[in-house]
Amino acid sequence: MTGQNVVNVSADASTYVFDNDGDHSGDQHRHLARLLDPLTFGRLESAGVGPGWNCLEVGAGGGSVALWLAERVAPHGHVLATDIKPGLIPSREGLTVVRHDIVADPLPEGAFDLIHARLVLSHLPRRDRVLRRLCAALRPGGLLQLDEIDITRWAEPSVPDGHEVYGAYVRAMARVLGTAGSDPTWGARVAGEMARAGLVDVDPVRWTEVWRPGSAGLDLMISNSRHLQDRLVEAGMTPDRLREVREVMSAPGFSAPSFDIHSVLARRAFGG
Ligand SMILES: C[S@@+](CC[C@H](N)C(=O)[O-])C[C@H]1O[C@@H](n2cnc3c(N)ncnc32)[C@H](O)[C@@H]1O
């Protein structure tokens, strides 16, 4: 943790299932960055983010997107990166890191040219209210990009070996997330929710790929099986079954479809 520029606002109690300060947190964020940064950066580039922009990165996690944004908006732009546990977000010029709960803590209105959040709102209670807060925090004409998950089509591996245990693992993961109040299918509805919140020029993209051993996706799934082991056991897996599914996900020849990510860009109307 660098943390010289971490400002404490509040660290509200959260039902969020992962953590940013445990043995597996660094791995989780490295794998997430390897898996999704190419999609996220491509979308942000298409949004035109550039020098001088004032950006908010919500739930910044390991900070890869916040760092990328800070480079893009330099020398005169600024990025505010928030998280309930911001300890893994690195420092750099033009980037301020804040311990901040997007559900409960104050947020300036009409302030940002761009707000981005990836895999955050689907974890949150009252995510519709959070979405409206984000809209209000945009300046008129400002852009919101949400990159969100939908696990609906995720559970079936492409090859028969390991089919049963992989499916059981994915279903247990869905139960763990659902029990904690996350909605891991929210991605499929995010474009509609953004339009309902009053945003315009809604531009959705759905991303999916096939995961093979050594891919960022399966490395993330292996890391998550350790990160959430206790909860996965409560949800019906056993330590032996978790060991077995890690072996399955590492075996040459295994492949499985990814979850879907819906990356949606939209704009606050001028005069909105
Ligand atoms: C799945 S991680 C995604 C991290 C990062 N956005 C990415 O995609 O690489 C979710 C992040 O949201 C943060 N988070 C969870 N609840 C939050 C809240 N109420 N306010 C702000 N951040 C929150 C977590 O601490 C975690 O860093």
From TrEMBL:
<keyword id="KW-0808">Transferase</keyword>
<keyword id="KW-0489">Methyltransferase</keyword>
<feature type="domain" description="Methyltransferase type 12">
    <location>
        <begin position="56"/>
        <end position="144"/>
    </location>
</feature>
<dbReference type="GO" id="GO:0032259">
    <property type="term" value="P:methylation"/>
</dbReference>
<dbReference type="Pfam" id="PF08242">
    <property type="entry name" value="Methyltransf_12"/>
</dbReference>
<protein>
    <submittedName>
        <fullName>Methyltransferase domain-containing protein</fullName>
    </submittedName>
</protein>
<dbReference type="GO" id="GO:0008168">
    <property type="term" value="F:methyltransferase activity"/>
</dbReference>
<dbReference type="InterPro" id="IPR013217">
    <property type="entry name" value="Methyltransf_12"/>
</dbReference>
<dbReference type="InterPro" id="IPR029063">
    <property type="entry name" value="SAM-dependent_MTases_sf"/>
</dbReference>
